User: Fold this.
Amino acid sequence: MVQAVTVSEMLYGHGLEADFFGCRIVALAGAYGLAQPFVRFWRQSQGAYLACLDGSAVLSGTGTADWEELQAFLPAAGVRSVLCDAAVAVHLPAFPVQADGVVLARMREGGAAVPEHELNPGPRELYSLLKQCETNTFRAPPFEGFYLDLSHRTRHGAAVSVAVRENGGELAACAFSTVQTASLAVISGVAVRPGCRGKGLGSQVVRALQAHLSAPRVCVYRARGENEAFYRALGFQQSASFVELRVLPEQPERLMRRLIE
Assistant:
């Protein structure tokens, strides 16, 4: 049975804080609370947890989850896409894969020297840098959602960004985290302006970012075949695989049939 999460205790004590996908759910609840209309949380008694922000969901589930129920619930709840472990995605065959990759993780560096950097530059500047770094496998998210979410999380201490500038001018490189729990932090983005690459700036901002994170373990989501050498040189190792599924809209006749049954 799927039920709405109405109190934070329903999310804690189940290992979500240390799970690569559950940590996103816990961090989202910590940043926005449980009463906002644009972000929703659910728990299935068989061992699955869901969070959905503006149609994009994260799913953390175990082998005991009722996958048939979840496969019917997602489109009925207005979910348009769902991020989950690749091992979970095989139980949701009705939804096509629109992106996939790997999760790399490492223990956070402690006591390491912190490179020179700027803390929490403006979201507009960060977005401009992300746009300059777009590739075939990476596209910057829509500006409004990125700006509002990063601004909110930064103001409430739920996100941290670091950057370095080129000769005091434009941002040359940045790294930021919008997901942090007591056990795990996610590096949400790293970008180096094309004309500034090859100078070690990417490694510099990643090390600087880790100095501002309190979680003992850090992870990053990476598209397959992209930036592998960079992250491995920083000590990250593959720990899981992720899949983003496109949730097809519920067909009215199918929904009516289930309601009648």
Notes: Helices lie at 22-32, 67-76, 86-89, 123-132, 143-155, 201-211, 228-233, 252-260. Residues 109-215 form a domain with the Aminopeptidase fold (CATH 3.40.630.30).
